[in-house]
């Protein structure tokens, strides 16, 4: 579903991503781990067609970036640090708006289904400006899954949420994974990644330095795997 070969990204003289290779099969949930400044957000922006690499090949759902960015975007759902919601619209109006952008046939029916998925149906008629950060994050996920994308990209979705909101978000993410979507999620919270992801990749110094499945890492060994991978990538 995702194929990346020899990716290079630089900002001026600084190389952020170098010789990065990355493959994700359909239905995998990949936890993308790494220290601050490793290039995780930059990498997700490239996958989301929001930034162009200096060199390398990126293919998502059979389409090449950046040449076929429009086709890729139709198959992507992205949740970043900005929820991309309209405060003066209700929850359901936000979804209706995005549904029309994606030319969904039965927008209102699909919006109702998604609001149930993310647990916001009781607040569907409330303005987004009245929502807590956790509720906004759940609605942002609803926006991202509205058009049934093949691939979901999450950039630190738990940031700034309290424990209750994180637990609710985990339930939504688990449901998304159970529906067979391909997911790539960055996070600093190893405990949460361990519970959600089927594979763990470590990005350090601009490239993937380790990749193992949940079974290969085993039990409570994710922290050790992560530390060894980062140390080995130095």
A few lines on this structure:
The protein has helices spanning about 40-45, 70-75, 90-100, 105-115, 135-145, 165-180, 190-195, 215, 220-234, and strands spanning about 1-10, 15-25, 30-35, 55-60, 65, 75-80, 150-155, 180-185, 200-205, 205-215. The protein is α/β, with parallel strands linked by helices and about 230 residues long.
Would you write up a description of this structure?
The chain is of the alpha/beta class. The chain has a domain at about 1-75 and about 195-234: 3-Layer(aba) Sandwich (Rossmann fold). Helices cover about 40% and strands about 25% of the residues. The chain has 9 helices and 10 strands. Strands 6-7-8-3-9-10 form a 6-stranded mixed sheet, sandwiched between helices. The protein has a 4-stranded antiparallel sheet with strand order 2-1-4-5. A hairpin with a 2-residue loop joins strand 9 (about 200-205) and strand 10. Helix 4 crosses helix 5 and helix 5 runs parallel beside helix 6 (about 165-180). The chain is globular, with a radius of gyration of 18 Å.
- Helical content stands at 25-40%
Tally the helices: 9
**Could you spell the SSE succession in H and E letters?**
EEEHEEHEHHHEHEHEEHH
Shape: globular
Backbone structural class = alpha/beta
| Largest sheet strand order | 6-7-8-3-9-10
Report the sheet with the most strands, covering strand number, pairing sense and barrel closure. Answer: 6 strands, mixed
What's the CATH H-level homologous superfamily of the domain at 1-75 and 193-234? P-loop containing nucleotide triphosphate hydrolases
CATH topology of the domain at 1-75 and 193-234: Rossmann fold
State mean pLDDT (0 to 100 scale).
92
DSSP, total strands: 10
